[in-house]
Amino acid sequence: MGTPNTKAAQDWLVKTYTSFGVTAKNEQYGTWRGWVRGHSHIDLIAPRQRTLEGQMVGYSPGTGGKNVDAEPILMPQFADSNDFVKWLPQAKGKLVMASVTKESCRPNSEWLTFSYPQSIARRDTANRQFATYGRGTGYNLALGGGSLSQRLDKAGVAGLITSRPKDEIGTMEIFETYSTVVPTIALSCEDYGLVYRLAQNNQHPKLRINLDGKLLGEQPVFNTVATIPGGAKAGEYVLLSAHFDSWDGSSGATDNGTGTITMLEAMRILKQVLPHPQRTIVAGHWTGEEEGEVGSKAFSEDHPDVVTGLQGVFNQDNGTGRIARVGAGGLPSGAQHLTEWLSKVPNVFQQQVGFTGQPMQPGGPAGGGSDDYSFSCYGAPTFGLGALSWDYNSVTWHTERDTYDKVVFDDLKSNATLTAMLAYLASEDPSRVTSIDPDSARRVVQPLLDSIAAANGGTPAGGRGAGRGGGRGGGGPRLWPKCEKAPRVTLQRLR
Ligand SMILES: [Zn+2]
Predict the structure, then answer these.
(1) Ligand 1 centroid vs 255 CA: distance in angstroms?
(2) What is the pLDDT of residues 51-61, one digit of tens each?
(3) Residue 481 near residue 366, CB atoms below 8 Å
(4) Bridge-partner residues for 32, per DSSP?
(5) Under 8 Å CB-to-CB from 145, ≥6 apart: which residues?
(6) How far is the CA of 246 from the centre of ligand 1 (A)?
(7) Distance from the CA of 289 to the center of ligand 1, in angstroms?
(8) Span from the CA of 293 to the centroid of ligand 1 (angstroms)
(9) What φ, ψ does residue 387 adopt, rounded to 5°?
(10) Fewer CB atoms inside 10 Å of the end CB: C or N, the chain?
(11) What angle, 0 to 180 degrees and rounded to 10, lies between the N-to-C axes of helices 258-273 and 409-428?
(12) How many A from CA of 259 to the centre of ligand 1?
């Protein structure tokens, strides 16, 4: 978000829609800090040479393309933030190791399969000790670069070294930093551990970093919105939804390139088979989802007519897999309509989503973590499209491994086809899906969800991944979500 690459991609998207004969535009809703990623070279140069596996995190300042040699420093456990501030002079000119390390970078599944029972117990004890590392600063290191990074900026450190490995060999998350002066890098689990142990054992490791990153200040940010105008019911809307931004540790292929092309291809199909729909069909390609659904929240605020006119939102944001679950977003009326629609799609799709002809359950509302939340919070109808995992959570989600080769095109063709059919049926449905009053829903949703959970034999209502799949907790939300105001400039988000 805020990068020139995003704007270039949005211009491409508008051009592509235009080639389909579909009207599309980039709609500005605010500004965000702009940034350009350049190269990252990170080497261990003492006590021996080794090129390390890592890169700058998002929005990190660089070193101006020059070599900076500096020694890593470990943080103790602090009694309180005064204690931390007293320690800071020691960190001047050093690379602060800011993450908790792990003794083993092997996945938990390997330990469970192969180890002596006492080995697991020993590993767990070590990890509990590591977990106290750097506690008590009074600052947070959210996603690798919260307020701690800004405080370390002021203290004149050389940079921050972070690490967010997944429970899978060779896979790490690359997020962002709020430091604006010194760089923040992310190292792999293995190399972070190596540097940590060398520092801990007084081997005086030294790193040479050469990083290029440009902070561009506040830049205009946009959603890309494509529209097939409606006819008799033009004031009612079917909204295809998929965020267009990605973390940039790799290409963002499955988060959310795959959701993006699902909606793009569904629109191409719809333009051919339903050029004059009854209801207006809109595709929303949001930016700022990764910063907290910023673009979709802004759209819902800027277009209250669309929110009140919604017949259905179809959102896809959990990877490349074929859609295996469709959720009714907590609305009884949504469940009824979804039952009718699914009874009309070809058998192969019914089987794929587990539709047996029985009435669909309302499930739970989208509770945040993807853009359907920005509409379900108003009580509007949303239909989550939950994909088969293809190891989305453990391998590709926000990692340096979310690359083109992970895309499974046959699954995406299926998804675009099913999405187009559901949008067609929603658009041409003679009756309207009834929204819910979110305030009264907030009071009744808990018993509603409990009864659904009981009927499902105790599994959480809504089902994991019905709305999304990405990395945050299982099950549906327990309360009807409240709308949050979109931050329109970066500063409104930085706390
Ligand atoms: Zn996503």
Answers:
(1) 5
(2) 999 999 999 99
(3) yes
(4) 219
(5) 57, 59, 60, 160, 162, 175, 176, 177, 178, 179, 184
(6) 7
(7) 7
(8) 10
(9) -90, 155
(10) C
(11) 50
(12) 8
